[in-house]
Amino acid sequence: MKPEDHKAAAQALIKAEQTGEQIGLLSVAHSDITMDDAYAIQDQFVAAKVAAGDPVIGWKIGLTSRAMQMALNIDIPDSGVLTRSMQFDTGATIPAGRFIQPRIEAEIAFVMKSDIGGEGITRNEVLAATEYVAPALEILDTRILRADPDTGQPRKVFDTIADNAANAGIVMGAERHPPDNLRWVGAIVSRNGTVEETGLGAGVLNDPVESVVWLARRMALYGNTIKAGQVILSGSFIRPIECPAGTDIHADFGDFGQVDLRFS
Q1: 8 Å CB contact between 156 and 72
Q2: Three-class SS of residue 224?
Q3: pLDDT tens across 135-153, in order?
Q4: pLDDT digits 0-9 by tens, 235-263
Q5: Could you say which DSSP state residue 95 is in?
Q6: Which long-range contacts (CB under 8 A, 24 or more apart) does 126-130 make?
Q7: Please, which residues have CB within 8 angstroms of residue 112's CB and are 6 or more apart in sequence?
Q8: Exposed/middle/buried for residue 134 (C-beta within 10 Å: 0-12, 13-18, 19+)
Q9: Alpha helix (H) ranges present in 52-201?
């Protein structure tokens, strides 16, 4: 793909978000698309948001579970960018029409107290740079169709990455904790009073801290760092839960906290 193709794809994604009308699969329109192309499109997408007054507040890490990696035939996570307009408080009601096909995932959010980066970043350095961790939900959305209507081909990892790793929102609980024993932090997630999913932090690369290590090292390859004050969604340890209109979500993280969300 050429730079003008990256820009055109990003503009199409912005329009899809604004109108609620999804675009076709980029992996179908551009059969030669690569991982670098996908991230270049994502960069253009985020740049357009920032230029419109929606600053970056952090990062999300996706495809951290072995099951999701196998499903997409990859062996590494992916990442996306969080912007200010994506923030919601626990207990919030999402207005109808805000998202196209929203889903949620349960995650552990890291809030950083100092900059961190470098290809050789270590687990201990991530822990030292973390101000606190908190229970969180990620809101996923798809500005690209989930499958090609003509061939039935599902989205590929290139489509997901270009689509800002399907990121659309973050909801953080009020609780604050040191980043200890995160492998054993779990959640019971209910939709309209029915338990839909349960999981443990160990589902995220065996330890959510390792997810942040991966992100810092990947960013270093492009000359970037994680900044103090940024929020990092470390990856889901449940499958995505569909959230059509009228959905109430309650995520019970036990002693770690609670997160609630409603879609009107």
Answers
A1: yes
A2: coil
A3: 999 999 999 999 999 999 9
A4: 999 999 999 999 999 999 999 999 999 99
A5: P
A6: 126/209, 126/212, 126/213, 126/216, 127/179, 127/209, 129/226, 130/178, 130/179, 130/212
A7: 129, 130, 131, 226, 227, 228, 229, 230, 231, 232
A8: buried
A9: 66-71, 123-129, 157-162
Closest by Cα among 69, 60, 71 to 232: 60
Q: In angstroms, rounded to a whole number, what is the distance separating the alpha carbons of residues 16 and 4?
A: 18
Of all helices (H) and strands (E), which one includes residue 43? Answer: helix 35-51
Spell out the residues 6+ positions from residue 38 whose beta carbon is closer than 8 angstroms to its own: 26, 157, 158, 159, 160, 161, 162
The CA-CA-CA angle for residues 169, 170, 172, to 5°, reads: 160
Cα Rg of the chain, angstroms: 17
**Cα 193 versus chain centre, distance:** 25
Quote the distance between the C-alpha of residue 163 and its chain's center.
10
* 0.90 surpassed by pTM: yes
pLDDT of residue 67 exceeding 70, the answer is no
Closest CA to 165 of 74, 260, 88: 74
Give the integer Cα–Cα distance in Å for 43 and 7: 9
CB 123 within 8 A of CB 206: no
Residues forming beta bridges with residue 260, ordered by sequence position: 250
